[in-house]
Specification:
about 300 residues, alpha/beta, globular, 7 strands
Length: about 300
């Protein structure tokens, strides 16, 4: 079992090669400071009533982690399967990347949604805008973005992520969450997983209060006050931690979504989602029930 450290000055281990933050980095202060709720109820609603803070770190149980499109961080993501394959093969043995690619390839070959509506599990009942948009434009009903701005943000993120590992490729080579992707993009994802696996195995799981110091997540709160964390950044890191046997990790939350507030969600108010559709998306993620486009791949992956 790999231990987690809560030190705010721990050395950074970003999900890509690059400079690390010095161990003497001073904690942030003011509105940008990270509120630590781990010893103060460990519930995301505490962030809503913190007045001056815009983000908080909580102890996120691995079995409560969620990834697109409604997969369980500790059980059903393709990155988790690839990380486990790497560990079984040997992190430093020749051929480890090839073994990981063999694991990722079926996912990217079989999980190919037609559009954003498929990715959300709404299919032909969805708003025409979602049926005309690519999967990476599948803005959640609780987000304050438009489909167009969501799409643009993911396209910019894809370019930045690929450049960070020395590849000049954009969204035209594919999106990390679904196929189709180019061989180069699949290689990038395998390399990113392997990098964080090696870092955690060597140094332990470390965090800090800097921008890249935690897995980032949206907190989803159900009608009974239970909560799950949906990754917005740090999928490779969370998958590596789960593969290494961690039962929880620090997660940084900057958005808290309550199911009871569905009629106030921006996507509902704008008419992009009906209330039943918005709740269906929330429940799919909260309960880890991925859409039909994933079912065939997942059944095969769980059987092997």
């Amino acid at each position: 079992m790999i231990s987690s450290t809560s030190s705010a000055t721990a050395t950074s281990w970003p999900e890509r090669p690059g400079p690390v933050l010095p161990a003497t980095e001073a904690p942030r202060t003011g509105p940008d400071a990270v509120l630590d709720l781990r010893t103060c109820g460990n519930h995301p609603l505490g962030l809503r009533y913190s007045e001056i803070h815009s983000q908080a770190v909580l102890d996120g149980r691995i079995d409560h982690g969620r990834a697109q499109p409604g997969l369980e961080v500790g059980r059903t993501t393709p990155f988790l399967f690839a990380a486990r394959r790497a560990l079984a093969h040997g992190l430093h043995r020749p051929g480890v990347l090839e073994a990981m690619l063999e694991c990722l390839q079926p996912y990217y070959c079989r999980v190919r949604p037609r559009h954003a509506a498929d990715w959300l599990g709404l299919g032909d009942s969805a708003h025409p805008t979602l049926q005309a948009a690519p999967p990476w434009a599948a803005v959640f009903p609780w987000r304050a973005r438009t489909v167009e701005s969501y799409r643009a943000a993911y396209e910019q993120a894809a370019l930045a992520e690929n450049r960070a590992v020395g590849r000049e490729v954009g969204i035209e080579d594919g999106w990390l969450f679904c196929g189709p992707v180019s061989q180069a993009k699949m290689q990038i994802e395998a390399e990113r997983i392997l990098y964080v696996l090696r870092r955690i195995a060597e140094h332990g799981y470390q965090r800090h209060d800097g921008p890249d110091g935690d897995v980032r997540a949206t907190a989803l709160v159900d009608d009974n006050g239970g909560w799950r964390w949906l990754i917005t950044a740090g999928n490779h890191r969370a998958s590596a931690a789960a593969a290494l046997g961690m039962s929880s990790i620090p997660v940084r939350v900057n958005l808290v979504i309550s199911r009871a507030d569905v009629r106030h969600w921006r996507g509902v108010g704008a008419g992009l989602y009906s209330v039943p559709q918005a709740l269906a998306v929330f429940d799919r993620y909260f309960d880890a029930r991925p859409p039909a486009v994933v079912h065939r791949w997942l059944a095969n992956a769980m059987a092997t």
